[in-house]
């Protein structure tokens, strides 16, 4: 029993030290982010992160505790290798998450969670994205991250495990031993199966306790030949396991279960993120990713939430919106530009010289200078654009075909109006179940439409090759038929690792420089495409809509809302206005209703989408953050709300309580609709 208790204490201390060192490594890796942060806050992050560290350490100690509690049943020569393999496997998994988190944080600005699992079904794209990461450096860190703790385990804990266990049993007793172990394994499996849905309730503690008790009693019942040797470690192990269950939950109080916000302690995002435990954060986000069947964002009673949201969509009594097109049935071409942030568009105050062709085109069409993306991921941006449906913070409706097929889609509405529809992507359509979503187009073109030598980009086909294909395809079909077309093209070259087939324009190997080079390349490809398209007969009857799928947290920014600020430009011979700037605050979800309205088509199927040109009660944009929060932008104010802390973590302008309430209601109802589909 003494060995069990000593191992129990040391094993948890081992993991707590490992988590603290991992937190220190994360801090050192991102030391450049700490300049404006008080040293005291960084120190407090280690203290406030202990609650989650203790929870994870307790969870990792549970199985070894049960194994040692039944040590009298297990031959001593088995205990040591079992614990060593178990510990090594956990170290490898958690270290992989921790090392990946170092670089992913630069791109996402939130700690690693289950979001990256969307890449599992497309390993080629996962490897392509990894090309821009310092793999050699991260590989060295991974080796150190695993080997160092393993050596510490061998020195501190391995000898204790070696002294546990029973002598090898006689051959006649082996069937009874195997039966007892099978019963224990079955009870443990049942406990694991019940872990996810019950973890955040007191019921979890009770059920888990009874499961452990039942397993140990059954084992004891089937090993009656040596009860004194069995019951003493079983009883002690049972008490220790019960204590671990309580430590895992954090409290026995009804509302005392640990949350991500349990580690948050200030209004500085990086300091709060530093306090998080990578393993806990990943498991927590994975268990909550689909929201199960319960809405986690219940701020108001349903009727109150509906009234709040209705006030954002009330129409003002006024004239019909202005007509911006010379015809009601123009061709429509959407060009969705990967990660096209307003921070790189000079007319929007962005870095000069990154997208000069687009900047010049702004004087030829209608520029929307206060448009905000619905989220920070491509799949959510596509749904917002084509279906006018808001993004959810930690899940994506595109990834669940049973839900996404219930959404309205622009291509289906225009098809009913006589259009021929087609979608182009020079990459793998299986990513985030995009193939299922875009199957609503009559024709779909992906990387398989291109020759092998054309598929030489990390993510598939370089943008200039796809632009050439689109131009040839439109020319061919326009000559064959006078039927109006609706096309959507999605670029890929400005996605990490930002590999582009052109000489470097912005010197440097850092992500910011590589990103600017990729935008410059796509900008040149777009400019060449537009120049050639203008010479085609179909141009005079075509509306071209250029906008981003989302922004990107690269390049310097003054506030979080800037990462969601994206440009939108309307071009084409079908436009009745040129050299115009629309200053209205609007959202990516508003594009669907706005385009349909200009085509004189009904918009009732898009209740979340506002016609940008129709007078209404509120001018606003809502966006969801993948770190589980949302932002709200209005003409003279904006803020970001964190769902973990249940409070506003950044604001600018005259933000009032009514603004926060409206945005909370918006999140609540949009997520509820997602759940109901």
From TrEMBL:
Pfam families linked to this entry: Sulfatase (PF00884)
Residues spanning the membrane: 12-31, 52-76, 82-102, 135-157, 177-196, 203-223, 229-248
Modification comment: The conversion to 3-oxoalanine (also known as C-formylglycine, FGly), of a serine or cysteine residue in prokaryotes and of a cysteine residue in eukaryotes, is critical for catalytic activity.
Membrane topology: Multi-pass membrane protein
Entry-annotated residues carrying 3-oxoalanine (Ser): 378
Domain Sulfatase N-terminal: from-to ranges: 330-600
Active site: 378
GO cellular component: plasma membrane
UniProt KW Transmembrane keyword: yes
Superkingdom to which the source organism belongs: Bacteria
Subcellular localization(s) per the UniProt record: Cell membrane
Keywords recorded for this protein, A-Z: Cell membrane, Manganese, Membrane, Metal-binding, Transmembrane, Transmembrane helix
Binding site for substrate: 495
Main location: membrane
Chain residues that bind Mn(2+): 338, 549-550
GO molecular function: metal ion binding
Protein name: LTA synthase family protein
Biological source species: Hymenobacter rubripertinctus
């Amino acid at each position: 029993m003494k060995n069990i208790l000593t191992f129990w204490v040391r094993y948890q201390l081992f993991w707590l030290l490992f988590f603290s060192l991992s937190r220190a490594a994360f801090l050192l890796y991102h030391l450049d982010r700490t300049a404006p942060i008080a040293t005291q806050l960084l120190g407090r992050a280690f203290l406030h992160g202990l609650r989650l560290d203790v929870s994870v350490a307790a969870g990792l100690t549970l199985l070894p505790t049960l194994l040692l509690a039944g040590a009298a049943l297990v031959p001593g020569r088995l205990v040591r290798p079992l614990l060593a393999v178990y510990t090594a496997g956990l170290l490898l998994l958690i270290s992989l998450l921790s090392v990946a988190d170092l670089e992913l944080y630069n791109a996402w600005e939130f700690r690693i969670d289950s979001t990256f699992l969307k890449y599992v079904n497309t390993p080629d794209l996962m490897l392509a994205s990894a090309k821009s990461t310092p793999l050699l450096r991260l590989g060295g860190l991974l080796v150190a991250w695993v080997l160092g703790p393993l050596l510490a385990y061998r020195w501190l804990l391995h000898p204790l495990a070696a002294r546990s266990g029973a002598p090898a049993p006689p051959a006649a007793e082996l069937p009874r031993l195997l039966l007892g172990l099978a019963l224990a394994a079955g009870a443990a499996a049942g406990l694991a199966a019940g872990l996810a849905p019950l973890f955040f309730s007191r019921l979890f503690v009770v059920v888990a306790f009874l499961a452990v008790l039942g397993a140990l009693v059954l084992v004891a019942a089937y090993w009656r030949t040596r009860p004194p040797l069995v019951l003493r470690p079983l009883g002690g192990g049972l008490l220790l396991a019960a204590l671990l269950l309580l430590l895992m939950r954090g409290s026995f109080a009804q509302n005392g279960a640990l949350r991500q916000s349990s580690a948050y302690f200030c209004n500085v995002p990086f300091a709060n993120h530093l306090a998080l435990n990578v393993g806990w954060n990943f498991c927590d986000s994975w268990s909550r990713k689909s929201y199960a069947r319960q809405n986690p964002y219940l701020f108001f009673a349903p009727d109150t939430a509906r009234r709040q949201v209705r006030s954002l969509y009330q129409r003002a009594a006024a004239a019909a919106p202005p007509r911006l097109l010379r015809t009601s049935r123009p061709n429509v071409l959407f060009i969705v530009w990967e990660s096209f942030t307003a921070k790189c568009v000079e007319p929007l105050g962005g870095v000069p010289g990154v997208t000069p062709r687009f900047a010049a085109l702004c004087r030829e069409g209608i520029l929307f200078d206060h448009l905000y993306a619905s989220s920070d991921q491509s799949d959510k941006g596509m749904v917002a654009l084509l279906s006018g449906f808001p993004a959810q913070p930690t899940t994506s409706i595109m990834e669940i075909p049973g839900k996404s097929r219930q959404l309205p889609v622009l291509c289906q509405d225009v098809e009913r109006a006589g259009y021929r529809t087609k979608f182009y992507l020079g990459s793998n359509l299986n990513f985030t179940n995009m193939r299922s979503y875009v199957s609503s187009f009559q024709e779909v073109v992906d990387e398989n439409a291109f020759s092998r030598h054309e598929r030489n980009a990390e993510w598939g086909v370089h943008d200039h090759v796809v632009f050439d294909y689109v131009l040839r395809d439109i020319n061919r079909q326009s000559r064959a038929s006078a039927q109006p077309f609706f096309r959507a093209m999605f670029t890929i070259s400005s996605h990490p690792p930002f590999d582009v087939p052109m000489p470097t324009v912005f010197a440097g190997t850092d992500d910011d420089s590589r990103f600017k080079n990729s935008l410059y390349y796509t900008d040149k490809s777009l400019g060449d495409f537009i120049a050639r398209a203008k010479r085609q007969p179909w141009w005079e009857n075509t509306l071209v809509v250029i906008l981003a799928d989302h922004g990107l947290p690269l390049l310097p920014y003054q506030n979080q809302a800037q990462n969601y600020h994206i440009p939108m430009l309307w071009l084409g011979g079908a436009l009745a206005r040129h050299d115009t700037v629309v200053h209205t605050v609007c959202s990516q979800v508003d594009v669907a209703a706005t385009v349909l309205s200009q085509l004189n088509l009904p918009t009732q199927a898009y209740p979340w989408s506002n016609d940008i040109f129709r007078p209404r009660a509120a001018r606003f944009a809502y966006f969801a953050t993948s770190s589980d929060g949302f932002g709200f932008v209005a003409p003279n104010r904006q803020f970001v709300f964190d769902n973990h802390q249940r409070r506003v973590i950044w604001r600018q302008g005259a933000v009032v309580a009514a603004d926060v309430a409206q945005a909370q209601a918006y999140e609540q109802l949009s997520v509820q609709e997602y759940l109901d589909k």
